[in-house]
Specification:
The complex is a heterotrimer of chains A (about 525), B (about 130) and C (about 220). With about 130 residues, chain B is of the alpha/beta class. Chain B is about 45% helix and about 20% strand. Chain B contains 4 helices and 4 strands. The longest helix of chain C is centred in the N-terminal third of the chain and has 13 residues, at about 40-50. The model of chain C has no long low-confidence stretch (mean pLDDT about 90). The chains are: A alpha/beta (about 525), B alpha/beta (about 130), C alpha/beta (about 220). At the A-B interface, α8, α13, α15 and α16 of A face β2, α2 and α3 of B.
Chain lengths: ~525, ~130, ~220
Amino acid sequence: MSDSIVAVLCDQQCSSKGPLQAANLTKRLAKSSTVGKLIVLDKACQDPEKKLKKVAGQKILFGGCPYLEESGFYSLAAEKLGLRPGEMLVTDVKSSILDLYDSSTAIEDNLIGRLESLGRLLADSAGLKDRPVKLKRNVLIFGSGYSGLKAALELSGEKLSVDLVETEDPPLAPGCLAEGLVCPGLIKELTSEVRTSEHVAVFPQAQMGPIQSVEKGFTVSFGGGELREYGAVIFAPERSEAPADQIGAWNLTQLYKRLHERRPIKGRIVFLLDRRSETPPEVIQDILIAAKVIKERSHAELWILLKQMRVALPGLQELYDTAREMGVIFVKYENLRLQNEFGDFQITGEDPQTGASFRISNPDRVIIPGTSGLSASALNAAETLGLRLLNGQYTQPYSLWRLANESNHPGVLVCGSARGNMDGGGVAADAASVVQALKARMIPEGITPVEHIASVDADKCVYCLTCVRVCPYHAMGKNIEERVAQPVTTACQGCGICAAECPAEAIDMRNLSRETVLAAMQAL
Amino acid sequence: MSDSILIVHCAEGAKKALARMTEEGYKLPPRFKTFELPCTGSVNEVLLMENLSNGAKGVVVLGCRKENCKHLDGNLKAERKVARVKRLLSEAGAEGRFVEMVYAAPDEGKRLHETLLGFARAGEAEGKS
Amino acid sequence: MIVAEQKPINMILDMLPENKRVLVVGCDTCVTVCLAGGEKEVKVLTAALRMAKKEFAEVRGLSIERQCDGEFIGEIREQVARSDVVLSMACGAGVQMMSDFYPDKAVLPALNTLFMGSNEGAGYWLERCLGCGDCVLDLTAGICPRTRCSKGLMNGPCGGSENGKCEVDPENLDCGWNLIYQRLKSLNRLDTMMPIRPPQDWSKSHDGGPRRLIREDVKL
């Protein structure tokens, strides 16, 4: 079994419910041709390092709770074992492990299935053998922000194999998420779904060689000399742009990066929130945690200016209180003015309740939640792919941005905020368009159509544009000749929101017309 | 008016929540009927009002957790519709009938079960008064 | 377009006589677009009336293209004949025309007609036009001094204009004349503001009964 891999299940944090049914799993995996050995590292294990060292020299499939990845456990283990990307894979098995305590065979089946399929993937890859074996996969997705994650999930739902690559550190969803452009809860759920999908291999902090195009697609070499071939590439890096209006202002991603790198942040720091739009409570939570860290490290003079103190999140009020105790100055403002004359920078405004004015002179750093921009590694990858930048966006052959953007390099689809400044809705719409386009190309016969596409009754439509405004995918357009709304069927995701909002009851979902629905409900 | 309570739920998180609830052994009495739609955002006031006027005692709209709607904010749109119908019902003096919005947490089967049963009990109390 | 909003349902219920056959009639034009009285709203109101505390013999609902053109009102002759009360979800013009066509039925308004205005965004309509009959938008860079100025001044602004806001509601109301000034300035036409204009001829507006428009060139 020299080509088999070792599966290491890590359950450091959650074993309060009792011992893992390791014996069961080992018995079942004894018949596996992929997973040669199973090791369980749980709280009962006294010397996990010793246990791991026993399998040094083999490829390892790690499985555990996502917390372990965030805490750097796998990177540390990989370091100790001298593993390089391509020689290890990480997957989330948290819920399955917890469920194992109920000894349900179905859940065990699921876990074993996943271990075996990912194990096969790992076993087939080059890694230690240093053989440039071409492993064929369907799609390479560069970037694990919202668009990358969403595309990965949807494509894997069609049983297309996907490699999701993230080169930034910290991995997984900086950019749009940090700036509050996409809801954090949604990202967390997508992330965990992607990690548990058997068709998606995630490469956080990947070291990739240049992407080369070959006859039927693209090849990339990963660290360790392993070569993979893909039918298509989705370029979906999150952008992180410095706010344009203030010299030297940072956006949140830039702040978090510096905090992560433990670079000094001191002096007079001002957070300017709510200027363009309301800051979501999850983003405020992140900001307050960052403020605490800054205060602890450097005792900086910290101001947080906002229009509203959002508290609609458990634990948020306590964070505000702690921040205040640490000396963070909160100011609710209106009539904010920023004046920069000959290097003298003044921020003035008024407290809306008392009318009293405030002034902050010459801050050392202003932090403004930003829009999105492109990271250095994304720019590098783009250059390697030969993508052309035009006005800060990747070339689009179509003027309607909601249609899938095939870049100037055929077979490379650009997705999400790399195409320009988009809000959360725009990013979602774009990911959906790209996925539809790729599905149509890669599985022409077997494509699972979206079941309930919208259709507009032209006689009833009053062209009020409510549906156009309300569609989360920007998938409703205007038929200019007939003066009615017209769905873009390739982008429609069948959510039914347009049908609900239409004041003329002119929209029905295919196979789900309002009469059918009401009749079916009556029949219950 | 019958005593049936219709649960209109989405095909995503709410469906999982109901499945999880059943898996954990929490069953709903037969007066509860369920109907699946792609997203709770596709629920509008007509659907709620016509089900009630056609005899249902109550309609529960069960959607994904607030930030977790697959279609971005369909569940929030549904909540606004439910709020409007609630107002209409109370202002029109429509007794004994109710609508409620519930955001499903897929890992809280027991709580979901209690919430749903709670609506049924409250509805009964109202009818009796 | 005409912007209207539904009356509160308890007021509608007060208007309707008990135990009668009610026909709810919607309109597919302006009130559909401002989400007050189209097909969907007809269905919602019909269901609400059926469940209301007050009892009616029967409640039915339908919607027609426009209630300001007799041809469409004529189409529902038979349904109206089978009802006692017509609850119109059209604007004031529609309710009145409906009443003209069916003078033996009680025709009741389900909406309050508010103004002629524009849709500024989802769920937000703003009054733009008073129908004063004497449009001066050429002089004011496309901003109406009747609707946008709280006092309807012809030679504004007044002394209550501060920081571009109207003293009537400084948080929400822009001073209309400040808006006019800024736009004329950006168009390099401030000279238009200089002459003192005589006050509006309000006889062209609501004055001496309903206004009429007769176009000889179109009469049959």
